[in-house]
Amino acid sequence: MEPRFPGEPLGLIAGGGRLPRIVAEAARAHGFRPVVVRIADAEGDDWDGFAGGYYSWGRTGDAIRFLKRSGVLRVVACGTVSKRPDFRAIVPSFATLLKLPAAFAIVRGGDDRLLRAAARFLENEGLEPMAVQDVEPKLLAPAGRIAGREPGTSEERALALAHRAAVALGRLDVGQAVVASQERVIALEAAEGTREMLHRVADLRARNRLGRGETLALVKAAKPQQDERFDLPSIGVSTIVEADAAGVRAIGVSAGRSLVIDYDAVAAAARDAGIAVLGLAPDGLPDEASRPAASAGSTA
Amino acid sequence: MEPRFPGEPLGLIAGGGRLPRIVAEAARAHGFRPVVVRIADAEGDDWDGFAGGYYSWGRTGDAIRFLKRSGVLRVVACGTVSKRPDFRAIVPSFATLLKLPAAFAIVRGGDDRLLRAAARFLENEGLEPMAVQDVEPKLLAPAGRIAGREPGTSEERALALAHRAAVALGRLDVGQAVVASQERVIALEAAEGTREMLHRVADLRARNRLGRGETLALVKAAKPQQDERFDLPSIGVSTIVEADAAGVRAIGVSAGRSLVIDYDAVAAAARDAGIAVLGLAPDGLPDEASRPAASAGSTA
Question: What are the TM regions of this chain, as residue ranges (chains A, B) (predicted)?
Fold first, then answer.
């Protein structure tokens, strides 16, 4: 995706984590001028050198006016939002008050993946939501081996079981992540998020609640009904480190429908931890044939 | 179920928790002579006044020989098994060594619900596995209101969502328990068990990770493919207390396919906590029409 004119402002609605910064820098490298609205987990993040500021949920209207006044026509929403906004706790500004019914309906909608909802809200405001992979196609996970070594037989079986469970979860519009051994599902992600689910697995392991012969795999899968513009599953260095601490030996993500954040660092961490990282085709098997043209693998 | 002759010995393979003792006392009240093989979590439990003893996984063969020598023809397996046996850590006795391949195959089978597997193993040994509700039909949850008050509208919506997710989980042969609000699924049980899942919800709540308007429901559902002789979902007083601590306002269980352990105490705890406890028909709605003839409700 290229700017429509040199220095086209690109709105970035940034939650927490590393992804928003990677997207902002890629946008700048492609000739955009990023305009960054920080929300939720991004409150304390350092965004020196980028136009924008932090907006609480109560200042949604102000954030939209700021983007419009900055000349923004297209926006990307990404990053983590770990707390749900509590609209009853908001002291609404005048601008927010005008927009509250619409915002309220959005946030009460479904699961905690508010960024997608926020993006739809922006669309109604005349701002076009774009996907992070439109800005940086290299973020998409390839099919087949992404990083680390090849998986062994029991790792492949654990990946297949975790993938099946993750797709079933996704169909319910619940979590994206599952840990399984070759024998059984160990942990399912819901509101707690992937990090806390991995901490739980580490804890079960420390308390000898897992069999010694159980080989663990983590799968993060896109929902079958996933809108690929928003909230794709992602893995980064912290995923590798936390998975390693939980005893996970193989990680699978949906090929072409998930993000690898900071590929070189992920590859190094996977190599150091001795973890196999794979892009899984929808049938759950690594599939070289489904490797997308633009992929993280191309940067390896 | 009546004894075939006065004082017929009834084998009881007892894991942890209150259920095995309730079953043993009911069996005795019906004229059986309970012979209790304690396993797993029951290691430290007090079973004074009952014939039997504790058997480690490595002494499976000894346990079976003990039951047979006691004249046992029918066995009931129930109670909690929170740790998987590690066959590589077993120093096998001679009797176990002879049976190890079969036992090993059982335990490596699927999820952590080992009691069902152990029961199948016994069947191969010529011992007939029976269900706890054969011994004590009052344990089965009725349809409709079981205890506490009637649910409100948002509680009914949370119950319906949790029930849908729990049935989907069951189809995957994973956990039986789900916590949902009227808006989204909050927590899914896998290897950690219901108690730890409820602790997680309490923790999410304490950290303001749930919205103030979210009304929480817990559902424990039988799997669609459930073998009703083994491992039915159950609730007891500790379920009510832990659910209350997690902020859960309504609890649903599969009517006729789940157990209410110690009904009077559950009813008192639900009343004290102000929690609605319901038996759910397979379509997810409380259904008076599907109320089973023999039910916990009849003891109310």
Answer: none
* Cross-strand bridge partners of residue A89: none
The 10 Å Cβ neighbour count of residue A56 is 16
Q: What is the pLDDT of residues A216-232, one digit of tens each?
A: 999 999 887 777 777 78
Which residue is it, tokens 């419009």? A68
CA distance B167 to B284: 9
From chain B, pick out residues whose CB is under 8 angstroms from the CB of A108: 183, 213
Residue A213: which of A188, A184, A242, A251 has the closest Cα? A184
Which domains, from first to last, does chain B contain?
A: 9-135 (3.40.50.20), 138-299 (3.40.140.80)
Q: In 3D, which of B16, B73, B17, B116 has the Cα closest to residue B64?
A: B73
ipTM of the complex, rounded to two decimals: 0.78
Chain B contact residues (CB < 8 Å to A): 82-89, 108-112, 164-165, 168-169, 171-175, 183-192, 196, 200, 204, 208-214
* pLDDT > 70 in chain A, percent: 81
Give the number of A-B residue pairs with CB atoms closer than 8 Å: 114
Alpha-carbon dihedral B135, B138, B139, B144, rounded to 10 degrees: 150
Query: Helix or strand or coil: residue A235?
Result: strand
pLDDT averaged over chain B?
83
* Number of Cβ atoms within 10 Å of the Cβ of B103: 22
Interface contact A168-B168, CB threshold 8 A: yes
How far B159 CA lies from chain A's nearest CA (Å)? Answer: 15
